[in-house]
Amino acid sequence: MTEQEMSLILEKLGRQARRASAALAVLPADAKKICLEKMADALIAAKSEIISANAKDLEAAHRSGMDAAKIDRLTLNDARINSMADGLRQVAAQNDPVGKVLSTVTRPNGLQISKVSVPFGVIGIIFESRPNVTADAAGICIKAGNAVILRGGSEAFESNMAIAGVLNRTAAQCGLPEGVVQLIPWTDRMAVKLMLKMDRYIDLVIPRGGEGLIRTVVAEATMPVLKHYKGVCHLYAASGCNFADAVNIIVNAKCSRPAVCNALETLLIDRSIAAEFVPQVSRALLAKGVELRGDAEFCKLCNEAKKAEESDYYAEYLSLILAVKIVDGVEEAVEHINTFGSRHSDGILSGIQEDTDYFTANVDSSTVYVNASTRFTDGGEFGMGAEIGISTDKLHARGPMGADELTTYKYIVRGSGQIR
Amino acid sequence: MTEQEMSLILEKLGRQARRASAALAVLPADAKKICLEKMADALIAAKSEIISANAKDLEAAHRSGMDAAKIDRLTLNDARINSMADGLRQVAAQNDPVGKVLSTVTRPNGLQISKVSVPFGVIGIIFESRPNVTADAAGICIKAGNAVILRGGSEAFESNMAIAGVLNRTAAQCGLPEGVVQLIPWTDRMAVKLMLKMDRYIDLVIPRGGEGLIRTVVAEATMPVLKHYKGVCHLYAASGCNFADAVNIIVNAKCSRPAVCNALETLLIDRSIAAEFVPQVSRALLAKGVELRGDAEFCKLCNEAKKAEESDYYAEYLSLILAVKIVDGVEEAVEHINTFGSRHSDGILSGIQEDTDYFTANVDSSTVYVNASTRFTDGGEFGMGAEIGISTDKLHARGPMGADELTTYKYIVRGSGQIR
Predict the structure, then answer these.
(1) Is A218 in contact with A204 (CB distance < 8 Å)?
(2) Which of A394, A396, A407, A414 to mutate to test the interface with B (most CBs of B within 10 A)?
């Protein structure tokens, strides 16, 4: 297919999405809820169809020698399809994020100015291997009244097409125009490049995947992008912290799921507690198989540690490696985090309110913790019900993003003949 | 000066701004208020200094043959400096937009999650001729706890430098580090290009000026930009509207200040009222010297009208020209506005709630009016006290933007040892 032919088809998808978004934007909350519940039922009903599409992807994956962890992420089975359906039902049950009156004011001249939440319009989602993202992302976009154009990884192409097909058929049964959920029907890179220039039709793009994918999207996209590049998360064990709690939190933040973006990557330890605290925390981390890379001072207190380079303090290891640094008080800790961090999730472990106040006020990150694990930065854990991604941007949305974050607002001004 | 030398100096401005923003972010509301009031006093005290700097700009402007309207915009005098100072005092008196708890939730595990408004950090403002923008923009940025880097038009360079100098001296007297208000100290285009690549130091850029300036900023900037390209504002005179009110509103929206972005550019008239309404509204508009460009149907009802081309319906005239079209009901009106408009300000004139509801729900613009003039899209008129610009973007802020819109948020999560 030539670039021009592909362009024409994408243009058609874009126009359909725009039309569908206009219908979705004014769809009553109840109708959206029912439609999402029907989509959940339809996924269950189409289990064998989805699993046999997935079998094709798995066959190709095995042929290409894909590693076991990736194959696991790609695999759909009875339980995982149930879980996709449950996800849609949970999103359906949430409060409707559209049409909320965010503020209202009556001006001295009698004008009544209301600020009301409205959908964005059309959202583009670009993601890698997991096919469940097709249903999760579509559900949350629809809840917020948006049409969605999805582009999934090539290794899950058949699975994604099957899931999107089911969702689209259900949307049609609900009386919605074609274009509510659309999947880019090609796996080559040209299609993504073209999609990212469609700012006439796509209001916002959310990439989900590794830093490489996200950098490509940001470089190519002509529409706004909500994203995080990486999560270089810190915990600072401050003077006066409860050692048992601190060790517990640090081990959880580093070890419970080291490959995710809210996992701990750098531990800062206050000099005043180092001599006593380092042996305790090191023992616990080493017992979990964590490789420690520390500054000279830390290495003196922990024989098993390797010497850290400066690059270690910028690193998102996504594995059982932890950078450690001894710092002199909360100011140096904050300075380190704002310099080396990624503005994702950073916490202080301390019982001294003066220090925790300084920390929360001065750390410039999307989520700042006091005495808890960084692993809680997650839409579900925040009570959003579902999550479309996490933002380390400052514009529009920061931290975990749910359906609320997929709305914008407009002002509705009601008058009775006012002129200026 | 070479590009590299300029880069080094800009880099220094950036670092200073970043440092100043950290100090401003934690400055208590009272201290910001007092600092802004002192800035107002300092402008008054420095009147002769500012007026003599302005005289140099005016001399150069006269030499270059600048037209009278532009020279008027460039001129500073006693009254205008008083008005800048008043603006700062008004911003000082507003509620502090920083540190607001936007939402708070306690999760079943005991985590307390608060969403709190915080400053962006460093804001870049790029503007054209009016030197008062230096004080207005700096005031609103500081109110929201941000440092600001300004780049004004070359024709107002001396005036801008004098004003920024006064503000900076005052910031120093208030104990703030250097870098709260900085003006790019060159007038050549290279400096803007370099500034727009400083995403390490500038979190957000707001351009204020003509469409050409804004397109350049969007094309060059590597940081987010909040802006509107143009205001192609519509009013739709619907079936059942009050004719006297409608004529009054239309004349006001078109004629009260035709050169501003919230002025009316296209009038839509419902077919059902056209025969009766067109003579009345045409008479009033023609009496004000408005040139009418209508479709064939309108031209039949109004002999003085010229025939409109399709391009007239995309046009932002910014002068006493009005495009007119006869439409068949509210659905066609909405369709026209969403196709030809600029998502700025659009209104319906009608007494029928079914139509006004359809209109407000379906018009995809930042501000949607019922029975009032589009001229009210303005921070002051919205009760924001001051305005840094108007956004037709959907991300982050739509419509008039005040100090609230110059904040973002972060999540502060307080726990007692929670792990996941």
Answers:
(1) no
(2) A394
Contact (CB<8Å) B420/A370: no
B419: nearest CB among A248, A396, A408: A248
Q: CB-based contact (8 Å) between B35 and chain A?
A: no
Closest listed residue to residue A139, CA positions, set A200, A99, A86: A86
Using pLDDT thresholds of 50, 70 and 90, give the confidence band for residue A108.
very high
Residue B129 in this model has a pLDDT that exceeds 80:
no
pLDDT by residue (tens digit) across B367-395?
999 999 999 999 989 988 778 999 999 99
Three-state DSSP state, A412: strand
B182-198 residue pLDDT tens: 999 998 889 999 999 99
Q: Residues A61-78: what's their mean pLDDT?
A: 93
- Given a contact cutoff of 8 angstroms between Cβ atoms, the answer to whether B127 and B153 are in contact is yes
Determine the Cα–Cα distance for residues A387 and A143; give it in Å rounded to an integer.
Answer: 12
ipTM of the complex: 0.94
Instruction: Give yes or no for residue A385 having a pLDDT over 80.
Output: no
Range A41-51 average pLDDT: 98
Distance CA B145, CA B131 (A): 22
pLDDT at position A188 is 86
Q: How far apart are CA A137 and CA A124, in angstroms?
A: 10
Partner A contacted by B219 (CB < 8 A): no
Confirm or reject contact between B256 and chain A (CB < 8 A). Answer: yes
Give all domains of chain B, ordered by start, each with its CATH number. 3-227+402-413 (3.40.605.10), 233-376 (3.40.309.10)
Residue B370 contacts residue B242 (beta carbons within 8 Å): no
Mean pLDDT of chain B: 95
- Residues 6+ positions from B202 with CB-CB distance below 8 Å: B14, B17, B122, B123, B124, B149, B195, B223
Compute φ and ψ for A240, nearest 5 degrees: 85, 10
Please calculate the CA angle A136-A140-A144 and round it to the nearest 5 degrees.
Answer: 165
Nearest C-alpha neighbor of A127 from the set A214, A50, A201 = A214
Q: Which residues of A touch B365 (CB under 8 A)?
A: 410
Note whether B127 contacts A: Cβ–Cβ < 8 A. Answer: no
Strand order across the beta sheet in which A291-294 lies: A306-307, A291-294, A321-327, A264-270, A233-237, A345-349, A367-372, B407-418, B112-119, B101-106
A113/B418 Cβ within 8 A: no
Give the gap in angstroms from C-alpha B44 to the nearest C-alpha of chain A. Answer: 30
Tell me what pLDDT residue B69 has. 85
How far apart are the C-alpha atoms of A160 and A154, rounded to whole Å?
9
Cβ-in-10-Å burial (0-12, 13-18, 19+) of B3 comes to: exposed
Q: What own/partner pairs with CB < 8 Å and gap ≥ 24 does A108-113 have?
A: A109/A418, A110/A415, A110/A416, A110/A418, A111/A413, A111/A414, A111/A415, A111/A418, A111/B372, A111/B376, A111/B381, A112/A413, A112/A414, A112/A415, A113/A411, A113/A412, A113/A413, A113/B382, A113/B383
Q: Do A25 and B414 touch (CB under 8 A)?
A: no
CA distance B417 to B420: 10
State the Cα–Cα distance between residues B171 and B4, nearest whole angstrom.
30
Judged by a CB distance cut-off of 8 A, whether residue A215 touches chain B is no
Distance from CA of A404 to the nearest CA of B (A): 13
Q: What is the pLDDT of residues B214-237, one digit of tens each?
A: 999 998 998 999 999 999 999 999
Hey, CA dihedral for A325, A328, A329, A332, is it positive or negative? negative
* E strand spans, A160-301: 181-183, 204-208, 233-237, 264-270, 291-294
